[in-house]
Amino acid sequence: MILTITLDKQRFDFDTSLVKDLSIPLEFNGSQPRVYGVNRAGSHTYEGDGFIGDTRKGGACNFEKLTLVPHCNGTHTECIGHITHKRFSVQEQLKDSLIPCTLISILPENAMNSSEDYDPPKEKGDAFVSRSALEKALKPVSKLFLKALIIRTLPNDHTKLSRNYSEQKPPFLSLDAMNFITELGVEHILVDLPSIDRAYDQGKLNTHRLFWNVKPGSHETTAHSLLNKTITEMIYAADEIVDGSYLLNLQIAPFVSDAAPSRPLLYPLIKA
Q1: At the N or C end, where does the chain have fewer CB atoms within 10 A?
Q2: Which CATH code is given to the segment(s) 2-26+70-271?
Q3: pLDDT per position as a tens digit, 230-268
C-alpha cells in the first residue's frame, strides 16, 4: 500500500510494505539482551486446579506466565514517570503515532579526551555520544525530520541483540549532547544503548532530566516539564537500514506503567 503524507506543504510517499523494525525480538528463556544484573525475561507454564497450560504435557492449549523488567529486558519506551514520584504511564503520555524522524550513526568517543561534560564526573573507560558528533551528523538534516531522533552507535553488530551490559561499560550521552538535542526540539529519542545515561551514575539520570526538563535531583514535575516526550532504549538498527529521513510508528504495549516493551517501525520516505 502506497500512502502520501504532507509535511510543511511538502508531499511524501511511503510504502507500508517496506517497513523496517528496530525492536529486538524478546526470546523468553532464550538469547536476549539485559542490563543491571536483572534476571532474564522468562516464560513459565501456568498450572493450577488441574489445568496444565502446555499441549506437550497434555494440556488443551498453551498458557504461559511471562516475567520481565521492561527497562532491562529488551527494547522499551519510557516516559517522564521513570523519574518522578507521580506515576505517569507511557501509554497515556505518548500522543504521536506517525512521527517524522532521522536516523544517524555515531561513533562514541573517549569521554576523558573530550571537553564535554557529565555528572557524576567522567571516569576512565567512559565513552559517550558527544554534541560535536551530533552537530556534524545533523548539519544537513532538515528540522522537519527532527521530531524524533534515532542514534545508532558504531561499531554496529548483531551482538547488540543478546548483549549482557553488566559485563561491560556501554556508551551514553554527554550532557552537552542532550542539551543540543533539546535545543533542536526533539520529542522522541531512540538509542541502541541500555540507557542514555551512564549505567551506574549514582542514580542521577541527568540526561533523562535534561530531556524531560526536570531539575537535577528532583522527582517532581513543573509547569515547564515536557510530559509527552519519550525515550526508547535498546533498539537495534541493522546496517541495511541507511541513515536518513523516515516516518516512525512507535508502537508500545498498552501497559499502565512508566515503561513498556515497544516496537519502533520505520517507513522510508520518497518525495512525491
Answers
A1: N
A2: 3.50.30.50
A3: 999 999 999 999 999 999 999 999 999 999 999 999 999
Integer CA distances (angstroms), 174 to 1, 98, 167, 204, in order? 41, 28, 22, 13
DSSP per-residue codes, 36-76 = TTPPPPEEEE-EETTEE--GGGT-SS--EEEE--TTTSS-E
Cα radius of gyration (the chain): 20
The three-state secondary structure class of 12 is strand
Q: Where are the domains of the chain?
A: 2-26+70-271
Q: pLDDT under 70 in the chain at which residues?
A: 272
- In angstroms, the CA 175 to CA 185 distance is 16
Q: How far apart are CA 82 and CA 227, in angstroms?
A: 11
Q: Would you say 212 and 170 are in contact if contact means Cβ atoms under 8 Å apart?
A: no
pTM to 2 decimals?
A: 0.96
